[in-house]
Amino acid sequence: MSEAAIHLSNCSIRVYSFNTVVVGSGAAGLNAADCLHRFGQTDIALVTENMNAGTSRNTGSDKQTYYKLTLSGGSPDSVREMAQTLFDGQCVDGDLALCEAALSSQSFFRLVELGVPFPQNRYGEYVGYKTDHDPRQRATSIGPYTSRKMTECLEQAVRARGIRIFDHMQVIRILTEGDQFFGLLCLDLSSPGDPERRFVAFNCKNVIYATGGPAGIYADSSYPESQLGSTGVALEAGVAGKNLTEWQYGLASLSPRWNVSGTYMQVLPRFISTDPDGRNEREFLQDYFPDEADLLSRIFLKGYEWPFDVRKVAGGSSIIDLLVHQETSKGRRVFLDFRHNPGKVENIRFDLLSDAARNYLEKAGACFGTPIERLGHMNQPAVDFYRERGVDLSREPLEIALCAQHNNGGLAINCWWETNVKGFFAVGEVSCSHGVYRPGGSALNAGQVGSLRAARYIAARRTGEPMPLEAFRQKAQPHLARLLQQAEQILNTAEDNIGALWEQATVQMSRYGAAIRNIDHIQQTIEETKKTLTGFWQLARANSPERLSPAFRLYDVLLCQYVYLSAMKNYVEKGGKSRGSALYTDMAGTKPHPSLPDMFTFQLDDGALGSQVQEVLYRDGACRFTWRPVRPIPEEEGFFENVWRAYRENQNIDD
User: Buried-most residue among 454, 486, 513, 574 (CB within 10 A)?
Assistant: First the structure.
């Protein structure tokens, strides 16, 4: 590491030089730093906006899942079979699926060694359970805060190694020349008011980008408020996007942001909606489900089938997501009421429920009382979670909406998690190793495996010093000059419209570019977003240096929205239909219920595009799309002597 400065006409920019900078302090970023150091690449640093922010540390669910190879019992499993499960999710590259399966056990046991208390039986088997889209029992959990504990243990490992951490640094520009990465420009969040310390540059040969999904593009979100993402500036720098249309949406509380999956639904809460001021309460689900047992059985299934899935709308539980979305689209507010049974009946007829619901509740000993009484009996920590955050479910309803939860798409990567830009690696949710569907918990495994793969490649093939300071200065100077000019434009005012522009953009994205998508609305939103983006530096106004951070973040959000919406439009033009967690309005299709509005008319995708990947490059304000076949699962020659020889020669790390 070296420290220097670049002197411009009216200020000085600090420059730090490293072989590799890891951006992000979630589970994937911390693991990348730990692995790099373990593999011998010690000229590294970790850059983060806030060590205690982000999704890994601040999110969870009723029982947050980690997905890995089966490690208990007599049921057969194999690396190839797990890879096939991941590959079957559609639009998944087979080499990535194979890596995630092959390294799942190694990554899992590394977490165990670091202190994550995954449950094992008296004989040492790490027991599992079945999660969504999982034919085996590969899932495990330590409760609602699995990823938080992972992050805490990984942070301890990073700090024990003495790895340099730059906290309160917001990446606002990624520096590339052609298809080669060479550095980062950051806003120092601890000194925005000091022009001499406001901006910082990192001169580095490699970056491992672990900034999480682009949560900030949506208003209705189950991501923690501290998770915003930085995908836009990567797209602007020429990094390709992949499968950007594929998201996961589901019902979540708005304050605090938390998925209302699992037990929250299995205890059969009452769904109510009100006017914006909380009046005119009504149980809107009963308008569509006159049969009480049918309604209750579908509510129960939402616990198992939490993500919105278009395949589960007709005759399934995902119609509840549509009905909630319809109420909020009318300007009404939707709540879960755990104080009363649906219909305010004193006693539910549990014997009339579906077999799955009745058997589960009977085994849990929960065929009694009100939803809050059942929830306390089955999962008291789920009650405590909200009480600790100021929401007493025994006294007040819980406001919910259909929210963005996870981006299955992201930045395009190869089997070493390197992007099309040399030296730029993307790991965790910001990268794309998933497709349309994925087993629950596979994202945590993907983050650990991807960061391991990127670190191994860098330590073996991309060692050495970054470019000399003078060469970096010459390449970075035009980027710095433009950055200083943009900051001056934004600050040269007494006004502040960042909040208003942000709300307008994110509300519009939730309305037209989330789970329910209409091509006409998408086209209109693309045009409006492009107009704002094109004139952003003249339009945006910040009345203090502290407002530079949300201003640069808003630019990232708008850029990301433009590319993601364009990807949705291109998907429809390619002939794509409703699939995964996205319903595309199609008047040639059918409505799941005759009294629903036309916006819910759709056709299910027939899988024709499931073996293809959509990729996009953003250049000069425009998106260029290409479609290619998925890469198949590799059929590697497994003769031991040959593999051993190649491993001795080059560790089987190819370019």
Answer: 454
